[in-house]
Amino acid sequence: MDPVTALAQALGLAFATGISAYATAAFVGLAAHLGWIGPLPAALSLLADPWVFGAAGAVALVEALALLVPGLATAWEAVHTAIRPLAASAIAVAATWGDARVAVLAAILGGALGLTTHATKLGVRAAVDTSPEPVTNAVATTAELGVVAALGWAVWNHPWIALGSALLLLALLFLLVRALWRAVGRALRALFTPRAA
pTM for this one? Predict the structure, then answer.
């Protein structure tokens, strides 16, 4: 595979890892093990080991359950600020291993994309958590897992479309975060502004 396409695949995986490192590793590993995608680059082939994708899947399940609980979801996301960007960088490097120049580019760009994706997701989660009911958290978690699975498949079959879709989704999520936080700000101002008699 040419280095530029490998970089596109790496960045698609970095985006998915910014959403959930565990779900990305679990889905890519399981899909490769079952022959749905692949072949994986040599450095990523370890994900296809049942012990590896099984462990990643178990932690992804714990993460999905934690993200259903308002308050806990934001705390979980905040803690993962230290994990997801590094995991995105590592997955991007593993996807391009073999060409040092491309691997270094993948590390830098993958880490930056993973951080940006994670920060945007954290903003969405914090805004969603202002609602006390669990339905919005369940919808958000289901959507996130759907995006990870779709990207995990598409990055191997249509890497450029997957990367373009990921970047478009990131821009839309950024606009959603802005809109949500403006709505939360208006609601808080209305709540704490004294009403005229």
Answer: 0.85
